[in-house]
Amino acid sequence: MEGDIKIRLHRLERLILKALLEMGDSTTFEIAQKIGVKKDAIEVASLWAAEKGLVTIRTETHMLAELTKEGWDTLNDGLPERKLQRILEKGPIQISKLKKGLERFDIAIGWARRRGWIKIKDDSVQLTEKGLNEISIELPEEQIIKNAAAAPVSVTKENKHAIDELVRRKILRLHIEKKKILSLTEKGREVATRVGVSAEVSKLTPELIVTGKWRDVVLTPYDISVKPPTIYPGKKHFMRQVIDYIRRIWLEMGFKEMKGPILDIAFWVFDALYQPQDHPARDLADTFYAETPSHGELPSPEIVEAVRRTHEDGWTTGSTGWGYKWDENEARKCVLRTHTTSLSARTLAKLRDDVKNGNIPAKYFSVGRVFRNETLTWKNLAEFYQTDGIVVGNVNFRHLLGYLKEFYNKLGIRKCRFRPAYFPYTEMSVEIEVFDERKGVWVELGGAGIFRPEVVKPLLGKDIPVLAWGPGLERTVMNRYNIEDIRILYMNDLEILRSARLWIG
Amino acid sequence: MKFVGTDLSITEIAEALPMLGVAWEGYHDGEFSVEVFPNRPDMLSVEGLARAFSSFIGIRLGLRKFEVEPPADKVTRVEKKISPIRPYIGMAVILDFPMQENALLSMMQLQEKLHITHCRRRRKASIGIYDLDTIGFPITYTTKPADFKFRPLEWDSKITLRDILLKHPKGIEYAHILKGLDRYPILLDNNGTVLSMPPIINSEDTKVTLNTTNLLIDVTGTHLKTVLEVLNIVTSNIAERGGRIGAVRILYPDKELVTPDMNPRSLALNIRYARKLLGINLTVKDIEMYLKKMGYEVKSSGKRDEVEVLVPCYRTDIMHQIDLVEDIAIAYGYSNFEPELPSISTIGEEDDIEKFSHVLRDLMVGFNMQEVITFYLSNEKKLFRWMEVPVEPLVKTSNPKTEEYTVLRTWLLPSLMEVLSRNQHNEYPQRIFEVDDVVILDEKTDTGARTERKLAAALCHAETGFHEIKGLVESFLKNIGIKGYRFEELEKGCFITGRAAKVLVEQDEIGYFGEIHPKVLENWGLKMPVSAMEFSVDKIYKHVKEI
To answer: Hey, which residues does B513 pair with through a beta bridge?
Structure first.
């Protein structure tokens, strides 16, 4: 119980209890003066103590008198009748002369006569004997004026008459004041005898710890609602957190990482993926072509020839092909990769020997930046992230859906559907869509499919099922963080980065 | 839904249509719009979409058969002089067509959409539709000089071909296709009446109106396969509304063609191939039913595990039996496939530099720094001029849409300066870093450039300076275990002279750091001092691995 109270008592409460124990019932004003803090603070703290049943608060109403402006003047100059009295001390003076020399002559004459200090004889005024005797005797009114200058004077039975007069003479005015008087309760008295009011310190210093002085002091309790300085953690960009999370998903599922060039040749970005050379995606309007370096080198003639034939007449893939003359020069052009599927194409070409030697199945992933020749708008960026995956082996369409479902489940997306889609390099082609509850529409998340034989056979040397996907990351992040404007993702506004909540998964 | 022959509600359509392979765009005022993917140009009009959809939901199963009347006297001569310009033409007629306003609008829409997509903005192929009754056979496909005149559509009078290209809106839009020619493609009838100037504009004299009942369709182009495909799509889609299709005999200088050929193509489908790829056990009967739902006819091929599939003439996207397999999957319903994870056990493996980058990013975060992710694309002003360093050779883009993105960055510090300059309204100190790629020209690679991983950090606050960044660099190097490094004075325009150093391991410069020059701060509009460092992650990794 004791510890309980001690902990809960604010320093001011403890000081109030101690003061009351010493002084008996006291007004908040008196306690404030004793402790040396503002009365307001004492009043607040006494309410806390009262709530705990340690003190009672009684309110008393007092009539107080304080000086008016005229009152302050009187304090300096004296009462008019007193001034007259002093002037007359040297002998009688003619009324006409007095009128000129004395302000408020009428008041002075009136009050001096009432007090029996003067008499008027012929046209002059002179002191009476009483007037002469009382010259240095302080009037009760004068006492009150002096006191009121120090602090407002309480109206009592004794001074009531004099104060009334002074109020009438507009030297004082009255106002009502409520005094709060505190008294200890039984419980308060008991606690007050026990609480310590030892020295208070706000900072626990090494010195206090080393010297052991911390035992003799009280560490000031703080107001825990006060706002502390803001702390910013060192942090990874929220997109990085997502990228790392996605990388972990693939690694946990046993995928190997693919890496490759950002600036690639059109061959790997388009031709190897069976995109015809007049395909609109290859337009200058969509793809960044490089001026320097303008052209790169094609891979082995074996692969190039197979790709050429496949485009032209289907080669041995069983396809009709696109039926046009394939231009090697077009394929050598350097472009900023429009998708990381270029890495999947490069990887397939590298797997030729593994396929020959029976070293499949194989699973690969990549996460990387891709480029589109776009102006920045709320829904378009020129650069964004894509995550590609391929599975080479004895796999089928249901497996493709299985991997996609697993991936999006791990990303926390439960309600998604698979819709037929179109990409030149996959067949079956799938678009994964998630239902946007707020807008009530299906939103595209990413594309996937099984690579066409026209893609696989020229690169791998054999037509084996290859599951492939390449969804973008931004849409998923925007859905999760409720971001409408895609530019916010890479604006790098430090306030946003510092306050963005961590990606938990 | 008249063409589909059903009474589905709009929500049912909105659910069902996407599963056929189109993207639902929305519904408004009795009209819905969808995005048709480029592999299905046959669905680019309401007739074609309805045809596919009615099969898909089981109302009109199987192959659409098209009777084509023989050409009789309908002949078009292709003159030799057209062949270097736009050599191919295909034609068809539709007789007794039930013309009405909707049909006319749909015809125009189909032409427009095909022109943009399958016709590659009219370059590869272009379509003309005429009132057959205004035209007399034989028709001649030829060229005419620039001063030849006729009255194009939406024009009051005859004007020269030259003026059409200069003044007519369609001429202005497509003049680039005929650039550099002195004679232009023209279709004339037996009276010398102009049908059109392909691929620009038709003539007013042969225009289709609401009174037209007999139609002539032509498709010209540079690619015969595409020309004939487009002719089949246009003819079959228009004829969905009624009328009889008739052929035209095309006399090329060296051969003769009768168009349109609307017979189905035949393609063999291996049943086991389909089963294996789909992962479901379909019977031949199932496969037949699903293919019928996609508008095909299935016949026995006489071989084991194989059927012969008749592909309608408008399905230009069917190149391989895999395309039939996909259509089976669509008819089966993507949502009916049970997703399954195969048990393929492989070992996950992360790229070394990526693995090392995680370590570096964790260390930088430990230094209480905020990671930023910035763009690879940049421009020479930001990379060099504002950094007060000489311009270096680098990867340049040839066709950027904005001046902001003309090159690929070769170092990271400018990116960090940009981030700082845009964050002046935010609280200081600002401590940022980035670990990401730059692209350096390199003739030794197959693409002429290599990707390099870098790390950069910048400290920005009133008290920062050389010593703070040096402290960071030393702690950084110690923590990643680089030993025997040394500092040498560095003279680089972005740093204050005498307040910058490079970091060497033996003779290899792995990075540098210093206090950013006030001129550079001014260039970026910064009012706070900045100290910064940049390292090559690839080089650091090499040295770390050597230890």
So the answer is: B501, B533
B358 and B316 assigned to the same domain: no
Contact A63, A154 (CB under 8 A): yes
Let me know whether B133 and B239 are in one domain: yes
Rounded to an integer, the average pLDDT of A64-93 is: 86
Q: Cβ separation of A398 and B319 shorter than 8 Å?
A: no
Same domain flag for B527 and B428: yes
d(CA A458, CA A453): 8
Give B 289-328 residues with CB within 8 A of chain A.
319-323, 325-326
Task: Give B 36-75 residues with CB within 8 A of chain A.
Answer: 37-40
B384-424 pLDDT, tens digit each: 999 999 999 999 999 888 888 999 999 999 999 999 999 99
In a domain, B524, yes or no: yes
A234, A428, A453 ranked by CB distance to B320: nearest:
A453
In a shared domain, residues B361 and B379: yes
Of B200, B230, B259, the last residue of a domain is B259
CB contacts < 8 A, A to B, total: 279
- Which among B259, B288, B316 is the end of a domain? B259
Contacts of A278 in chain B (CB under 8 A): 120, 124
In a domain, B61, yes or no: no
From chain A, the residues in CB contact with B32 under 8 A are none
How do residues A29-50 score in pLDDT, each as one tens digit? Answer: 888 888 888 888 888 888 888 8
The position carrying tokens 């819709």 is A419
Torsion of CA B400, B403, B407, B410, to 10 degrees: -160
On whether the A79-170 domain is CATH 1.10.10, my answer is yes
Q: Is residue B374 part of a domain?
A: yes
B27 to chain A, any CB pair closer than 8 A? The answer is no
How is A178-246 classified by DSSP, letter by letter? EEEEEEE-HHHHHHHHH-----EESS--HHHHHHSGGGTSEEPPP-TTSPPPP----B--HHHHHHHHH
Q: Which residues of B touch A255 (CB under 8 A)?
A: 346, 348
The answer to whether the CB atoms of A398 and B349 lie below 8 A apart is no
Cα–Cα distance for residue pair B136/B113, rounded to 1 Å: 29
Please tell me the CATH code under which domain A1-78+171-197 is placed. 1.10.10.10
Query: Tell me, what's the ipTM?
Result: 0.93
3-state class (DSSP) for residue A173: strand
In a domain, B130, yes or no: yes
Q: Are B454 and B439 in contact (CB under 8 A)?
A: no
* Residue A289 near residue A335, CB atoms below 8 Å: yes
B94/B246 Cα distance (integer angstroms):
6
Asked if residue B533 and residue B414 are part of one domain, the reply reads yes
Q: Are residues B282 and B391 in the same domain?
A: no
Average pLDDT, chain A: 89
One domain, residues B42 and B107:
no
Query: How confident is residue A344, by pLDDT bands cut at 50, 70 and 90?
Result: very high
Q: Is B336 on the interface with A (CB under 8 A)?
A: no
pLDDT on residue A4: 47
CA A85 to chain centre: 74
Q: Do residues B314 and B375 both lie within one domain? A: no
* CB-CB under 8 Å, B21 with A421: yes
Most A-contacting residue of B124, B266, B322, B419 (CB-CB within 10 A), to test interface: B322
Q: Confirm or reject CATH 3.40.50.1240 for domain A254-471, answering yes or no.
A: no
